[in-house]
Specification:
single chain, 482 residues, alpha+beta, Four Helix Bundle (Hemerythrin (Met), subunit A), Heat Shock Protein 90, eight-stranded mixed β-sheet, 63% helix
Length: 482
């Protein structure tokens, strides 16, 4: 589960909860508003009914026709106003009956006034129509009172519902917030704190305790990469220690040999015979060459790591370059036969001849070193449709498949011979980087106990006569390999 998913889920959960709470509040508010409107209609109709009662009583007591007409107009207006505040079918039917009863009462009142114009003061109105109208008015008042009470009960119920839902909603929000905070603390904050503590421990010197790979995917990925980095740094330190031990071991042998040879020509001793002296100086020369090769390998490895290995590129005939790298070993070991095979036609390539010669010398030197029982070391120059090829084949101890994968890494050497054959494990690494700097490939095929074949592939030039793509071959180009 990723941190992004956790945050999106948290925000979405709060959004849904907010929508639900807001929706409930809208429903409760709308319902309470409707109930309040119903209560208002009931109160208004009660007020209108009471006014109609008073106006009807006044109408029943008067004998002045003009006043009667004015009061009748008021009653009709009150009936019209009451129609605007009805809240149910019962009220509508009752108001219709009341309207008809009032009109009947008005007709009977005017008829009674015409038939008895000279009666003494007192009521001349028809008793039956008046009683019917007044009873309907009282029923209208009572009905609105009942509607108001029902509305009040509904309002009370909805208030209880809103209180219950509001309390439950607040509790749900609070519990959800606490749950999310706890979840974030366990799933995000604690892994982040543990990762920070692991990095702090590493900074303070604890190089062995790994960072816990827990929590969201991003934190697990960071912890995994951090553990990989610390493991690689530990492995690198081990390689560096092994490298220093190898350098010390390989320096000790030639230095010991030089010390022994120098002791034979010490100032206080008589010089040995000339043949022995020449032999001593020959041995010293070989030991100094070994030291020089080791120093140059270290220097090249340092330049490669810094990304500033210099290549002076020019157009070359690969046959001459390889021949120069092989000639150095013509008398290197009487037990090994070095066989050079080159084609009749030039093999043109764009390269640094000194660096390619260095690669060839390294491969041939390794072939001799790792063929302790002698045999033939074959160096071949060839071409295919795309590349120029250099192959170095030996009949030595070979390399296992598991060791080939790490063969071109610095300070790596084949297992069974690393204690008996000198070297610090940089030659093939440097050679591999040089060939990659030429946009070529260095590959190996080997079977343990049967020998190895190293193959160098370089981009081939087909232009004849041989000349540089950027100018004459006599003006080399210097580039930096990064």
């Amino acid at each position: 589960m990723s941190l992004r998913f956790i945050l999106v889920t948290t925000i979405a959960a709060f959004a849904v909860l907010d929508i639900l709470v807001s929706g409930l509040l809208i429903v409760f508010t709308a319902r309470l508003g409707n109930i309040a409107h119903e209560v208002g209609d009931s109160v208004e109709n009660i007020h209108l009914a009471e006014e109609m009662e008073v106006t009807t009583l006044t109408h029943n007591r008067t004998r002045d026709p003009e006043v009667m007409l004015s009061l009748e107009a008021d009653l009709r207006q009150l009936i019209t106003d009451a129609w605007q505040h009805l809240s149910g079918e019962d009220e509508r039917l009752l108001l219709q009956q009341l309207d008809r009863a009032l009109e009947g009462y008005f007709v009977a009142s005017h008829a009674a006034l015409r038939n008895q114009p000279a009666s003494p003061a007192g009521s001349l109105q028809p008793t039956t129509e008046f009683d019917t109208t007044f009873v309907l008015l009282r029923r209208f008042v009572y009905l609105n009172l009942m509607e108001g009470r029902r509305a009040e009960l509904k309002a009370a119920r909805w208030r209880r519902f809103s209180t219950i839902f509001g309390t439950a909603g607040a509790a749900i929000v609070f519990l959800s917030l606490m749950t999310i905070i706890f979840w974030l603390r366990v799933s995000a904050f604690r892994p982040a704190s543990d990762l920070s503590a692991a990095i702090e421990r590493y900074v303070k010197g604890d190089k062995t305790t790994p960072a816990p790979e827990q929590g969201p995917r991003e934190f697990r990925s960071i912890a995994e990469r951090f553990n990989q980095l610390t493991a690689e740094l530990a492995h690198q330190r081990e390689r560096q220690m092994a490298f220093l031990a190898g350098v010390a071991h390989d320096l000790r042998n030639p230095l010991s040999a030089l010390k022994v040879a120098s002791s034979m020509v010490a100032p206080e001793k008589q010089l040995p015979p000339e043949p022995l002296l020449r032999q001593i100086f020959g041995r010293q020369q070989k030991q100094m060459e070994r030291l020089e090769r080791m120093v140059w390998d270290l220097l090249d490895a340092t330049r490669i790591e810094a990304g500033i290995l210099e290549l002076r590129m020019e157009v070359c005939d690969l046959r001459d370059v390889v021949r120069g790298g092989v000639e150095v070993f013509e008398s290197a070991s009487p037990r090994h036969h070095i066989l050079l095979r080159v084609p009749d036609r030039p093999v043109a390539t764009w390269c640094d001849p000194a660096r390619i010669e260095q690669v060839v010398s390294n491969l041939v030197s390794n072939a001799i070193k790792y063929s302790p029982k002698g045999g033939t070391v074959e160096v071949r120059v060839a071409r295919d449709p795309v590349d120029a090829l250099i192959t170095v084949t030996d009949q030595g101890v070979g390399i296992s498949a598991s060791e080939i994968a790490n063969l071109f890494k610095p300070f790596r050497r084949a297992g069974p011979t690393r204690e008996t054959i000198s070297g610090i494990g940089l030659g093939l690494y440097v050679a591999h980087q040089i060939i990659e700097g030429h946009h070529g490939r260095l590959e190996v095929r080997s079977v343990a106990g049967e020998g190895s074949v190293f193959e160098v592939r370089l981009p081939r030039l087909d232009t004849q006569p041989v000349q540089s793509p950027n100018g004459p071959a006599s003006s080399p180009t210097e580039i930096l390999v990064h």
